[in-house]
Amino acid sequence: MGKRALVIGGGIGGLAAAAGLVRGGWEVRVCERAAEPSRAGTGLGIWPQAVRALDDLGLGEGFRAKARRQAPGSLYRPDGTRLATIDTGRIERRAGRAVSLIPRADLLDLLHSSLPEGTVEFSAEVTGFPSLATGYDVAIGADGISSRVRTDLFGPRYGLRHAGTFAWRGVVDLELDAGGETWDPGGKFGFVPLPGGRTNWYATRRVPEGFTPSADALAELTAQFGTWHDPIPRVLERAAGEEILAHPLYYLDPPLPSYVRENVALLGDAAHAMVPDLGQGACQALIDGLVLGECLTAAADPRAALVRYDHLRRKPSQRVAALGLRVAAISYARRFTRLRDTLVKTASALM
């Protein structure tokens, strides 16, 4: 009889882990509490290590059919002064794979399509997790930033800390040649071209915990960012009538002492929820899923495989999360731009 795995959460990391385990001959059950596949979210930047993970999962060709290469992007001040440029071509030459952009829904569809029909159970709210996990060789907590599995394993001490910022995101019908991000002490605004002539945008403001955004998100955004350099005013004009996602930003603090306990592993946001300033959340979840699947497929003893997974993924992913916090802090600074540029180059070298 084959080995059996239970995956709690049908997001990017959970589906990547399921895909890797299915390829390795495991019987996999994915429990997703949502009623149907998610169409929410905007665009995702997928960096070379994560593209390599998709290749290793056998999904590289399908990914490239849906994705778009990311052109070099720049960092700006609100008046349009260029602070730095991220040379995505150099990154591609060094890594052998491009930095790519894909709508989140398309990436989820790709991962779903790799699984046998019926693998993912929707409207499947899991209760009594610790006892349920004993019925499987391995259980995987991929249930996101507010992970119940994490709390069950490690208690409330390892919880979420408010990042001091609030975020808005959306997609508009606007074709741009290149993306960029604009930094100011009070907030940031980013814009990234997507396939099909659309543009993913996001904005953040520094706010106290408990901040309540205006019911008119577009008016609030226009008041803060509408006078910034082109194409930001054009992006906001196109956002009229489009869905705008809004939410506070959190990260996991303190970092977990382990991603595994007995026959249970955590991955993705459940293991290392991070601020979005490096654009690495989805990438790290994909890599987690691949590495976890490879470890479990290669080892005869699932618990030994989980120890190996923790060794390979905990410190690297926590380093990325810590670097994201440093970049977030310095991106709002008025001074130390030389240090800021160094951090950006360092971040690019790690991806």
UniProtKB/TrEMBL annotation:
Pfam family, one: FAD_binding_3
Database matches in InterPro entries: FAD-bd, FAD-dep_Monooxygenase_BioMet, FAD/NAD-bd_sf
UniProt keywords, alphabetically: Monooxygenase, Oxidoreductase
An example Gene Ontology molecular-function term: monooxygenase activity
Domain FAD-binding span(s) in chain numbering: 5-129, 259-320
Entry protein name: FAD-dependent monooxygenase
Species in which this protein is naturally found: Amycolatopsis pigmentata
Lineage: Bacteria, Bacillati, Actinomycetota, Actinomycetes, Pseudonocardiales
